[in-house]
């Protein structure tokens, strides 16, 4: 099938949910029907029609937005959508529960795909089941195109590209710092968290995916020198302050290592990356790092006990579909710094990238990161050696994504430190 046979450039699949709605709103605000043939998809036609009324009511450019209806549990409906679309951009999660048939349909149809997953166990499953087939069919399956893991992965690519150009050598190690931010969490995100802990408790393969720092590397390459995520408060080796473990490190670090592996180890076989939350210097910094580490440890411990996990999911977490309002998604902010350290002909050097914006990281900002990832794939605006495969943002799209995000108000800057 050629691309000209396909009706839609991009289908936002799951557009009636929190993240999907923000993504559809963003794309209809940023692009017109002449620039982008967009459709919204989901399982409930009434909700989709109401969404289209809202989208067209807010926009002078869009009189209508086509709707595609299917169900994540009905593979034939997903095949029909995949065959008729250039890029399926999906926010239907938890991906462990709902994601696999859509990836399979896109791989079969040679359709590009991007998502918001942070479920490492599920990414490992798609790597093992679909990577080779996706290479064969020229389907670019790009996972984790939101706050997990664009800033960390593309931020690392910015650092490494600058190091190679300026010093002729990559950085041997990068540290990713969550330097600031404020935002919210939706019921859908907490449902995915719940699914991740459920998988870790019941599925040995999921446990292995979460234990091994190299679990997302290609088969046969799943070991190395990097010890994996920091689990305790520590004084930082590069900055004069304390750091705590980052809740996103288990995803982001593995995605960055997969980027290095897929690209053929341009950053070296001994490349190390670590993501942390900086907490400041002195006794207050140390106490804050201990409190953050303790809080995360407590949450993980609670989520690892079946009855406690069930009770939290049932009585404490908001329901899927609940989440920030439009105003809340457009507020908030985040700033991530990536510091790289290397050795060139003239001695050691340090490179720093900044990645951030003034919007809620998981929603307003994520809608832009995911939407622009889909547009990059639809337009072929990528810097990647791959026409297909189970890929990462850095390996499957690359620096054109940073360029597009700069155009919509993101900071994505890099220089000597
Ligand atoms: N990486 C990041 O930074 C980031 C940020 C935000 C969200 N996320 C992830 O994105 C995912 C979605 O989050 P969310 O808050 O948007 O969730 P949500 O509000 O619950 O939305 C889920 C969507 O999936 C649809 N859906 C559920 N079951 C379906 C089925 N069987 N067939 C077709 N569609 C189905 C829902 O349709 P109905 O409306 O009909 O129920 C809804 O459109 C989660 O996995 C979350 O972790 C990641």
Q: How would you describe this structure in keywords?
A:
417 residues, globular, Rossmann fold, seven-stranded parallel β-sheet, alpha/beta, single chain, 16 helices, 14 strands, binds NADP nicotinamide-adenine-dinucleotide phosphate, seven-stranded mixed β-sheet, 46% helix
Short structural summary:
The protein is of the alpha/beta class and 417 residues long. The chain has helices at residues 18-30, 45-58, 75-83, 95-98, 100-109, 120-137, 150-167, 187-202, 204-211, 249-262, 282-304, 306-316, 326-330, 364-379, 393-396, 399-407; strands at 8-13, 38-42, 67-69, 85-90, 112-115, 140-142, 173-182, 234-235, 242-245, 272-280, 333-344, 347-357, 389-391, 411-416. Helix 6 (120-137) links the parallel strand 5 and strand 6.
